[in-house]
Design a protein that fits this description.
It is flat, with a radius of gyration of 19 Å. Strands 1-2-3 form a three-stranded antiparallel β-sheet, with no helix packed on it. It has four helices and three strands. It has two domains: 46 residues, no CATH class; 50 residues, no CATH class. With 111 residues, the chain is an alpha+beta fold. It is 19% helix and 12% strand.
């Protein structure tokens, strides 16, 4: 694979992974054909495509009233999305019920 140059944040380096355990892991994850890298100083193994976004994510500006909803992979957007309504300003964001797209009702009207 040809090496690409990426704009990374200052102090961030990429460690290439190799070996039989890595090859088994890569084979079990066909959705990531470019493989995985280890990002330092975070010591995290991430899909290689993350390198396209590392600097933008690192420099992302958050606001004091931002709400982050994080969930485990495969837990389901439809399950997690309605949770943002009770913890945010429903009137300001016009929260729709993601469980039934297109119904036009805000979450609190369906309770």
């Amino acid at each position: 694979m040809a090496k690409q140059e990426f704009q990374l944040s200052e102090g961030v380096t990429v460690e290439e992974l190799s070996g039989p355990i890595y090859e088994t892991f890569k084979a079990a994850n066909p959705l990531y054909p470019d493989g995985f890298i280890k990002l330092q100083p975070y010591n995290q193994m991430l899909p290689r495509m993350y390198l396209n976004w590392e600097k933008k994510i690192k420099e992302f500006e958050t606001k004091q009233d931002d709400v982050w909803v994080a969930s485990y992979p495969k837990c389901g957007k439809q399950f997690m999305s309605p949770l943002k309504c009770p913890i945010s300003d429903i009137d300001a964001i016009g929260c729709r019920n993601d469980m039934d797209p297109g119904n036009g009702l805000v979450y609190h009207e369906q309770l």
